[in-house]
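Residues determine shape. We examine one folded chain.
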Amino acid sequence: MTDSQGFNYMTNSPKMASQFVDEIGSDHVEHVGKPSPFKTKQFIHLGPTVDEMIGDNDIHDWKKGDFVEHDVFGKGVIVKVNGNTLDIAFSMPYGLKTLMAQHKALRRLSS
C-alpha cells in the first residue's frame, strides 16, 4: 500500500492517509520518506457550515411579483414560488435563477 503527499482541493487541506492505516495498527505499517508536517487530522479546514453560508433573511411570505435584490445578481422579480425556493428573473447576464427563499443574500425591495 502506498500514500502520497499533496493537497486535497475537496477538503481544502493537505491529503490525509486513509483511516485504514490507523485501523491496521503501527505494527503492520512501514513509513518510508519524510512525513508531511501538515498531514494531520488537526489541520483539516472545515470552513463554514451550509447553515452559516445560507443564513436566514427572516422573510417567509414571498409572493409572485415581489421585487428583490441579491448581493451578487442585483435586482430581480419573483416569477414563481416553489415552497422553499424562488424562481427569480434577474437582468442579463444572470437571467432566471432558482434560489433558496431564506438565503441571507436575498432582500425584498419595496414596490
Residues 7-47 form one domain. The chain is about 10% helix and 30% strand. The two ends are 65 Å apart (CA to CA). The longest strand covers residues 74-82.
